Amino acid sequence: MTNDLTIHLVDDEEVLRRSLTFLLVSAGFAVRAHSCAKAFLDILPLSGRNCLVTDLRMPDVNGIELLHRLHRFSADVPAIVITGQGDIAAAVQAMKAGASDFLEKPLREDALIAAINLAMGQRRPGSAIADSESVAARVRQLTDREHQVLNGVLDGLQNKMIAYHLGISSRTVEVHRANVMAKMGARNLAELMRMAIAIDAVELSTETGRTLPASPWPAYAR
């Protein structure tokens, strides 16, 4: 497989950079590997079709700050964040900062290539409007309690923390969370985040015909 897409891989671990570069080149992609965020930022602006695959935790400029800087530079580059286990809250922040997806290590080849294809496909004209309408229809199916659980999930909270603040059991949170995923048609947290980003809270309140429950989470828990 060959295409005109260039993958920019940013990771401070040389072993992982080499491994992912080999994987992506074998899949037919052109790859430029960068040892740090600054090395990538130094080559802006980019030309042609590009996709960024960046590690979350790096010295100096981490993955989230890299996304913020791209936004300030008005660099419209689809981005996928790679994260270790236990970094879900930070990964949620990365998606709020503009990442198209996040993947947990160790990476699977099929998952990475699918994420790249999805990130590039999201650039289709008119897709955002269609996604907003679809997400709004799904949100209307959620109960108030499911909205509260959804708020906690999107804030990156673990089930036990959601349970504590709502005064319910972790098992009940698991049930509500499963219901939310099913009603929203989300296969994983990254998909759920993409849906939430598709429309903002004001649009949700207007289209659903009722005010959404306020987030119950204290500032320190967000």
UniProtKB/TrEMBL annotation:
Cite the InterPro entries for this sequence. CheY-like_superfamily, Sig_transdc_resp-reg_C-effctor, Sig_transdc_resp-reg_receiver, Tscrpt_reg_LuxR_C, WH-like_DNA-bd_sf
Q: Which SMART domains does the annotation name? A: HTH_LUXR, REC
Q: Name one GO biological process term.
A: phosphorelay signal transduction system
Q: What molecular function does GO assign, one term?
A: DNA binding
At the top level of its lineage, which domain of life is listed? Bacteria
Q: HTH luxR-type domain spans which residues? A: 135-200
Against SUPFAM superfamilies, the record matches this protein to: C-terminal effector domain of the bipartite response regulators, CheY-like
Q: What PANTHER family does the database record attribute to this sequence?
A: DNA-BINDING TRANSCRIPTIONAL ACTIVATOR DEVR_DOSR (PTHR44688)
Q: What is this protein called in UniProt?
A: Response regulator
Q: Which organism is it from?
A: Rhizobium fabae
